[in-house]
Amino acid sequence: MLDRFDVAILDECQRDGRLTNAELAARVGLLAAPCWRRVRALEESGYILSCWAEIDRHRIGLGVLAFVRLAAERNAANITRLLEDAVCALPEVVSCHSISRTGTFELQVVRPDLEAFSRLARKVLLNQPHVKDLQTSFSLGEVKSGGALPLDYLGRREKPLGPFRGPPRTKMACQGLS
Which residue, 18, 125, 154, is CA-closest to 66? Predict the structure, then answer.
């Protein structure tokens, strides 16, 4: 079970992965040694997966971000695994999700320009094992990307959301309805 210090460490680490242990300890209200032990424990238990630099894709010449939906020919475990393995081996694919449609994957693909994307789509993506269909949408601009995960719910039970019944009525608001 995560306590408030663990949550604070996770929050600070995902906002700035370059913090020194001393800076992190000061931000979360711990001494350096206990903070370091907690970070190690969070890494070993799988909460912290890795730390890396986020690179501006435009600055390195990757101007096109495409969302590609690939559909597999058949929905069988071995066919799905073959397609997953093939897609994971492509460095242009920066994200791949199996989505809630039989044998369908949503990819995020980066390329320098539309011509380079077109070559990749025609010569590589469509030739992956058991691809039945490919649909593409292009990003017109990033509104939000690489955001920190919300952690405010950790350590407390959230009430399930019920059906929306509109804003709560106050006594004054109801008096005008009679």
Answer: 125
Q: Are 30 and 38 in contact (CB under 8 A)?
A: yes
**Low-confidence residues in the chain, pLDDT < 50:** 158-162, 164-178
Task: Give CA–CA dist 174/178, Å, rounded.
Answer: 7
pLDDT in the model for residue 163 = 52
> Which residues does 9 contact at the CB level (< 8 Å), separation at least 6?
24, 28, 35, 38, 39, 42
The burial class, CB within 10 Å (0-12 / 13-18 / 19+), for 167 is exposed
Give the architecture (CATH level 2) of 64-138: 2-Layer Sandwich (3.30)
Residue 156's pLDDT is what? 61
Residue pair 110/57 in contact (Cβ under 8 Å)? The answer is yes
Q: By the 8 A CB rule, do 12 and 26 touch?
A: no
153-167: pLDDT as tens digits: 886 654 444 454 444
CATH topology of domain 4-44: Arc Repressor Mutant, subunit A (1.10.10)
φ/ψ of 5, rounded to 5, equals -70, -40
Q: What is the pTM of this model?
A: 0.73
